[in-house]
């Protein structure tokens, strides 16, 4: 089955590799019938496919070490390890013989099976028509079909049940060609391995037996703290969420790790911070192996589902959800009644939240689910009956009210279901939304989101008064469940009383780290700012010369997180253990 699924990826790769050859045949040139031109085409064919063969065969040696296909970022590694080339040749001499043999076969059939061409004069109209049709078919082939987005290595995860088998689906040349368009990270060596481990601390363990509560993650689109009266103390549009805050365990200083949905979902579902320009599902590292919450809990018997009522292919969430270990994925196409389609993004939140509750109700326990809303997104459309009920409320805030109403209806339905009392709910946002309040437009405020842990039958009430962020969700859940294997994550459990807690982000070429009092801005080499956000909430006064010890402490931690993140991405070492 993997072989059959891989044929589609192979077709994309072969088309990409041979684009110059295809173009040489499609162009309506008189020279196509000349022997010299045909020799040029044959040599071009050999060159394009010979280069691809080098990487396909090279991965036979490289894959056992990297556990992923070669990408363009590996060229730097090749340069740094060029002194090992003689030893590699000695160990894998048979690959050289295989390359020569395959290249000979390609050359033989490429010459004997080449297309016969007639002079193009007097036939420019037909030749131009053939060019247009041929180019159209080539475009479809290079995209892998007529779907919304071109076929990418990430899509291979949809073809296998075990994510470790995904590299078998697509060829190395496709990974290389796709990654060549991406930006790569440069590993950092701020600290030795011993120093780095000392800063980050040992893996976490739980001495008690694991408790298998259900886990329900609810991610609200663009729900910044600015929209909640519970947080802003001015005017709010989230009455139900605010009421839940009093019934659960909330984080007073909670932040998103990025400013995009793709970054937020990666942080929430897999604990991966957004410390590079590209979201991981669109980066050169999209084929890396991850330890998502669903995948970790699957080993303990959990069923899992990812719910997002969007159009198919939206932000590649289906492929990424499978990388994270989710067994089931539900988008607009899974929803039974397309009359509830909003005409733009997907299914309205209210009916899709109900669909989610009813679908979860069919799951065996224990289960984990992730529900990601969509209606509170530009252009902020809501169902007509809700719009008529609140005609005076601006569209942005009305859409937030609508999603909050969807959340209330979800809980109303879920309370009557058997699994509800044994479920830990985590409610947060993917990122903040449009801001009208200057307090939420600073380098801190633009990341401020709600983060709530709620369990209906447990005494999980109160607040975390230290800093928390989306990457703390995964370790918090494992800590709450008393997960019984060692694990090491970027974040920390909000239920642990550590000396310091942090949130860190990256935007506009600047890293920043936030603790209970300060925010430090770092440009990868030097600290460029330190601000006391308690005394100076608008962050107008740089105090890095005044608080040197705090500056050094935060810079040290930021460097450690950058080094860990970049090494994990480049070396495909993001699995957290356990």
Strands of the widest sheet, in order across it, are 4-3-5-1-6-7-2-8
Shape: globular
> Do you know the CATH architecture of the largest domain?
3-Layer(aba) Sandwich
* Range of strand content: 5-15%
CATH class of the largest domain: Alpha Beta
For the biggest sheet, the summary is: 8 strands, mixed
What's the number of domains? Answer: 2
Structural class: alpha/beta
Written account of the structure:
The protein is of the alpha/beta class and 578 residues long. It has two domains: 2-179, no CATH class; 226-498, Alkaline Phosphatase, subunit A. Helix content is 40%, strand content 12%. It is built from 19 helices and twelve strands. The strands form two sheets. An eight-stranded mixed beta sheet has the order 4-3-5-1-6-7-2-8, sandwiched between helices. Strand 9 and strand 10 (510-514) form a beta hairpin. The longest helix is centred in the first third of the chain and has 32 residues, at 35-66. The radius of gyration is 27 Å and the shape is globular. The model has no long low-confidence stretch (mean pLDDT 90).
């Amino acid at each position: 089955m993997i072989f059959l699924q891989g044929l589609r990826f192979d077709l994309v790769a072969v088309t990409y590799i041979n684009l110059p050859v295809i173009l040489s045949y499609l162009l309506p040139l008189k020279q196509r019938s000349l022997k010299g031109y045909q020799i040029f085409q044959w040599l071009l064919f050999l060159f394009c496919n010979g280069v691809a063969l080098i990487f396909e065969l090279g991965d036979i040696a490289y894959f056992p070490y990297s556990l992923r296909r070669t990408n363009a970022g590996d060229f730097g590694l090749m340069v740094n390890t060029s002194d090992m080339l003689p030893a590699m040749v000695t160990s894998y001499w048979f690959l050289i013989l295989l390359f020569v043999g395959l290249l000979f076969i390609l050359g033989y059939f490429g010459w004997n099976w080449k297309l016969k061409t007639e002079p193009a004069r007097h036939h420019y109209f037909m030749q131009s028509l053939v060019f247009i049709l041929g180019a159209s078919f080539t475009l479809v082939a290079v995209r892998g079909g007529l779907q919304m987005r071109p076929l990418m290595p990430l899509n291979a995860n949809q073809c296998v049940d075990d994510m470790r088998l995904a590299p078998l689906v697509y060829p190395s040349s496709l990974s290389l060609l796709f990654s060549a368009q991406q930006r790569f990270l440069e590993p950092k060596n701020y600290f030795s391995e011993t120093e780095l481990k000392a800063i980050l601390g040992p893996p976490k363990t739980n001495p008690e037996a694991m408790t298998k509560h259900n886990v329900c993650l609810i991610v609200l689109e663009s729900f910044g703290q600015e929209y909640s009266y519970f947080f802003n103390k001015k005017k709010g549009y989230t009455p139900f969420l605010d009421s839940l805050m009093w019934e659960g365990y909330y984080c007073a200083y909670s932040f998103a790790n990025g400013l995009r949905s793709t970054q937020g979902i990666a942080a929430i579902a897999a604990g991966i911070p957004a410390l590079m320009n590209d979201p991981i599902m669109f980066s050169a590292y999209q084929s890396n192996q991850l330890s998502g919450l669903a995948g970790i809990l699957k080993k303990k018997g959990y069923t899992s589902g990812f719910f997002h009522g969007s159009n198919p292919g939206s932000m590649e969430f289906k492929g990424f959800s499978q990388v994270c270990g989710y067994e089931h994925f539900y988008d607009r196409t899974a929803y039974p009644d397309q009359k509830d389609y909003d005409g733009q993004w997907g299914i309205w939140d209210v009916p899709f939240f109900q669909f989610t509750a009813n679908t979860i109700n069919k799951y065996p326990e224990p289960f984990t689910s992730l529900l990601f809303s969509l209606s509170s997104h530009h252009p902020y459309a809501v169902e007509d009956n809700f719009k008529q009920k609140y005609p005076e409320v601006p569209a942005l805030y009305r859409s937030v009210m609508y999603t909050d109403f969807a959340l209330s209806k979800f809980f109303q339905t879920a309370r009557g279901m058997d699994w509800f009392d044994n479920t830990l709910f985590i409610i947060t946002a993917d990122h903040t939304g449009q801001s009208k309040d200057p307090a939420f437009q600073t380098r801190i405020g633009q990341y401020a989101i709600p983060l709530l842990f709620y369990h209906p039958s447990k005494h999980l009430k109160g607040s975390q008064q230290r800093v928390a962020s989306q990457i703390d969700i995964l370790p918090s859940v494992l800590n709450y469940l008393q997960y019984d294997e060692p694990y090491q994550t970027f974040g920390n459990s909000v239920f642990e009383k550590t000396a310091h807690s942090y949130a860190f982000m990256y935007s506009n070429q600047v890293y920043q780290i936030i603790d209970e009092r300060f925010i430090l801005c770092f440009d990868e080499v030097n600290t460029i700012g330190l601000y006391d956000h308690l005394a100076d909430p608008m962050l107008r006064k740089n105090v890095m010369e005044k608080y040197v010890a705090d500056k050094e402490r935060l810079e040290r931690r930021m460097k450690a997180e950058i080094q860990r993140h970049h090494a994990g991405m480049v070396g495909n070492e993001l699995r957290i253990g356990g």
